[in-house]
Amino acid sequence: MTGKSAPEARWQIPRQEVEVGIARDEAMRRLRSWGFDGNPDGPAGVFKLLVSEVITNGLRHGGTAEALTAVMQAEGDLITFAVRDSNPAGPARPLEVAGSLPLGGRGMFLIEVMADGSGWHPDGEGKLVWFQLRVPAAALPLAATEHTDTDEGQRHRQMRDLGHRIREMRPRQHVRRLAVAS
């Protein structure tokens, strides 16, 4: 990233399941346009997954408003993505039964385990659910990147590190509270 002011974007997500993919693609487009590495095999792939999870959670459990609001901010290499919905209740957490999670309801669990920070807070008549993730700047223009053996080693280390984080199964500390004006 360059020394420019911190980028921020907001957009509406209509309450239709098909909109998850559209909003996810928009978040990835903005990530790349801000100069971040958009390689889906790296942190950007985790970002893409977490964006899908937080939007899906908002669509399924976020109240009755006609649309959700997506908010995306970058400060250095820290990306914050949030969804504002119209349900003031906090996100539901799945109950663990006999050491395993149910088939549904894993989205917030994934966000807690995989993000560098996450949380929610009341926001007007609804709430804001957010996560933060460190994503490196693109080293080369996307068209100039090539797959190398070094990429394989890096991918292997990232997957190993992700496995360690999942096994820890503890929520990450909240890095900061996202303040979004209505």
From TrEMBL:
<feature type="domain" description="Histidine kinase/HSP90-like ATPase">
    <location>
        <begin position="44"/>
        <end position="132"/>
    </location>
</feature>
<keyword id="KW-0067">ATP-binding</keyword>
<keyword id="KW-0808">Transferase</keyword>
<keyword id="KW-0547">Nucleotide-binding</keyword>
<dbReference type="InterPro" id="IPR036890">
    <property type="entry name" value="HATPase_C_sf"/>
</dbReference>
<keyword id="KW-0723">Serine/threonine-protein kinase</keyword>
<dbReference type="GO" id="GO:0005524">
    <property type="term" value="F:ATP binding"/>
</dbReference>
<dbReference type="InterPro" id="IPR003594">
    <property type="entry name" value="HATPase_dom"/>
</dbReference>
<keyword id="KW-0418">Kinase</keyword>
<protein>
    <submittedName>
        <fullName>ATP-binding protein</fullName>
    </submittedName>
</protein>
<dbReference type="Pfam" id="PF13581">
    <property type="entry name" value="HATPase_c_2"/>
</dbReference>
<dbReference type="InterPro" id="IPR050267">
    <property type="entry name" value="Anti-sigma-factor_SerPK"/>
</dbReference>
